[in-house]
Amino acid sequence: MGKKDSQIFSEAAQKLYDAIMEIKYGRPFHSFNFIMLHNIYMLGSILYYKLDESILSDTDFDKLCKYLLDNFDAAKKVIRHADETFVKANLEAGTGYNIKFSVIWWNIAQHYQRIK
Description:
Oligomer: single chain
Number of domains: 1
Mean pLDDT: 93
């Protein structure tokens, strides 16, 4: 991974950190775009299920899953690779347990852990 890649992952992790803090302080999900919400879902899943770290309370994660499920068709239209990472059954169950995470998500997760 080059210096430029590292900077990109670091910036992505910082944006996610900022958004997660806003959620923790009461910003409603509908005020975020679907891509950001999907990214929070992905980061929350990799950290929780693979790295044993929680970024949202269980209640907030469940609410995020419900919001994405309720808006599934609209969200799926704007999320790249939605068929691979954005599965209705997972959202119904409130989980991201069985997602196969790309190296990009592993890098973002590592940078996120350095920020907090």
